[in-house]
């Protein structure tokens, strides 16, 4: 399925996750965040950068691992991305949905 973000046609899977991380940029992330009802702040972007860094290193993500990362507590993670922190933040970050997400 194709979606248009930041005037660019992006390949997404059925759940709206980017198929190609190379198509991601901050404008794309911002538009996905808007779709998800998230008003991005500096804290949000710090979490997004951490997720992308872990993805590049091929580190499997889980809420527990993110809570232990020192980047964000589990409580704050849920405050920043209330409707499913790992699913929503991964989508905004342009990375595949983590295996640990249902």
From TrEMBL:
Any one Pfam family match given in the protein's UniProt record, by short name: DsrC
Principal subcellular localization: cytoplasm
Listed transmembrane segments: none
Record keyword Cytoplasm present: yes
Keyword list, A-Z: Cytoplasm
Compartments it resides in: Cytoplasm
Family to which this protein belongs: Belongs to the DsrC/TusE family.
Protein name (Swiss-Prot/TrEMBL): TusE/DsrC/DsvC family sulfur relay protein
């Amino acid at each position: 399925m194709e979606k248009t973000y930041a005037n660019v046609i992006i390949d997404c899977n059925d759940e709206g996750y980017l198929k190609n991380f190379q198509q991601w940029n901050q404008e794309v992330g911002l538009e996905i965040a808007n779709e998800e009802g998230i008003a991005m702040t500096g804290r949000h972007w710090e979490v997004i950068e951490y997720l992308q860094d872990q993805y590049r290193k091929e580190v499997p993500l889980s809420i527990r691992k993110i809570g232990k990362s020192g980047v964000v507590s589990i409580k704050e993670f849920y405050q920043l991305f209330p409707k499913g922190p790992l699913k929503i933040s991964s989508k905004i970050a342009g990375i595949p949905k983590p295996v640990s997400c249902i």
